[in-house]
């Protein structure tokens, strides 16, 4: 009978609040050594009410871990785990002030994000989402959906980190000429893939396609703005699987309306979810997905295990006084 007894909460174990869906492999690891509370879709108030009872919190990009969250935790929260790469939804300054570690899962969703970037690149160039919608509505519009070829075109990969370099490698396989701008990129890694590292201005001036792969920081916020769009090649096509905030969305809308930007493929937005009447999303030359870059079964399982290990490592260091 003992084998079927329901799990009871152990007071000696740390408590981990999992605030967004996490793969089973990660949950299993956590449950071995912690009390795990999976509570999704919490309002900011509900999250604040729960954190004072938790030693660790795990989120994806949908939860804002604000200063209020750290204040409400009253010092109990020791680790925030971001099940993904970008930690721009966590107030790092407040985390530091409250002595809370912030860890992420830096590798497991790289390929998924790169593949989604390529999926958007190809779908946009060949008008696949629009043609699909049109055919399902009973229309047969072959010339309206004539696309553009990728082979021989120049792709500028803005940010040559893990995802950017994998996008570059795949784009080379499609016969594209790939240049990249990244002040921190290792030159030999770029050259090994056949990618030329160039300045920001050179990259955007020569590109037929621009794919964004930089983190959202103070330096990159709205780095694609009216001034930037004034320097691109007319008719450029833009893919964003990084963060919505690196583009000034008003400026992009104008650039689309004037034909400076021919098309955009966006997986990320300044506000997520975006407001209902978002003009960019409704634009006929824009294709969109709801922040799906990391959303493959494989990536989510990998991320879950990677973040569970990072959070437990941090908690163990914390509990034994070494973190
Ligand atoms: C990331 O930062 O890893 C991606 O945006 C994926 C996600 O938010 O889940």
From TrEMBL:
Top-level lineage group: Eukaryota
Keyword vocabulary terms for this entry: Amino-acid biosynthesis, NAD, Oxidoreductase, Serine biosynthesis
Domain named S-adenosyl-L-homocysteine hydrolase NAD binding: residues: 143-297
UniProt-listed Enzyme Commission number(s): 1.1.1.95
Coiled-coil regions listed: none
Catalytic activity: (2R)-3-phosphoglycerate + NAD(+) = 3-phosphooxypyruvate + NADH + H(+)
GO BP terms: L-serine biosynthetic process
GO molecular function terms noted in the UniProt entry: NAD binding; phosphoglycerate dehydrogenase activity
Family indicated by similarity: Belongs to the D-isomer specific 2-hydroxyacid dehydrogenase family.
Record keyword NAD present: yes
Pathway assigned in UniProt: Amino-acid biosynthesis; L-serine biosynthesis; L-serine from 3-phospho-D-glycerate: step 1/3
GO cellular component entries: plastid
Designated name of the protein: D-3-phosphoglycerate dehydrogenase
